[in-house]
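Quick one, tokens below. Sequence please?
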């Protein structure tokens, strides 16, 4: 019969997984991806892919740590944190480059004696209606794996100290991962609300939202790298 206290620990693990999805670096990464995909379908798919990659990496690293009973070396954890920071900078930079490449600008012209101003782009129109689900999943899956590696050190310290066996430890990680998947899918849906509505408010609002997501991702990424290299707190 399963120990009731262990069931409580598993329940706590699920709740902590939900809370884990709210970490600022997770929100920045997913919001940057979703800023390029203004649709409800994409939001759920991105959240699910991120969560699966995150959980898969946690289970992989957790299995190694639990079997060998060794903690993750601090230098490895710091390198993983730097990778996450650089990844956020890259995501924000790619989104910013896309905005520049599309060369959106205000265009004025006369029509029936009245001057009109509208947004214009020199980018070629592309049909995204037939995008394959796996193409939309690969990037958030890899992003989730990177976050899983970076966040594994603190989680596995607790698991190694509290788990009675390797199986119990892996089960806790799996439940924690399920919580993070559910949390990130919910976060994805919530983050998609301003993205989808910005298109209805007009293209300038949507572009401003994309620019904000790009700048925020770059700023947070640089802050994470600085904090990791210097040990300064991330305020």
């Amino acid at each position: 019969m399963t120990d009731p206290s262990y069931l409580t620990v598993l329940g706590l693990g699920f709740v902590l997984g939900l809370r884990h999805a709210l970490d600022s670096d997770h929100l920045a990464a997913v919001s940057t991806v979703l800023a390029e995909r203004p649709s409800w379908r994409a939001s759920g798919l991105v959240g699910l892919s991120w969560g699966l990659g995150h959980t898969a990496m946690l289970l992989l690293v957790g299995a190694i740590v639990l079997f060998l009973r060794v903690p993750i070396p601090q230098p490895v954890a710091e390198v993983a944190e730097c990778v996450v920071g650089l990844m956020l900078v890259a995501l924000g930079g790619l989104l910013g480059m896309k905005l520049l490449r599309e060369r959106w600008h205000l265009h004025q012209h006369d029509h029936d004696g009245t001057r009109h101003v509208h947004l214009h782009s020199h980018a070629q129109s592309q049909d995204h209606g037939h995008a394959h689900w796996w193409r939309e999943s690969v990037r958030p899956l890899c992003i989730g794996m990177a976050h899983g590696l970076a966040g594994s050190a603190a989680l596995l310290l607790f698991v190694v100290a509290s788990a009675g066996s390797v199986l119990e430890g892996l089960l806790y990680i799996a439940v924690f991962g399920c919580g993070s998947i559910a949390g990130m899918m919910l976060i994805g849906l919530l983050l998609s609300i301003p993205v989808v509505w910005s298109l209805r408010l007009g293209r300038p609002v949507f572009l401003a939202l994309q620019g904000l997501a790009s700048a925020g991702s770059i700023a947070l990424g640089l802050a994470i790298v600085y904090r990791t290299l210097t040990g300064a707190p991330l305020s």
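Residues 116-131 have pLDDT under 50 and may be disordered. The radius of gyration is 21 Å.
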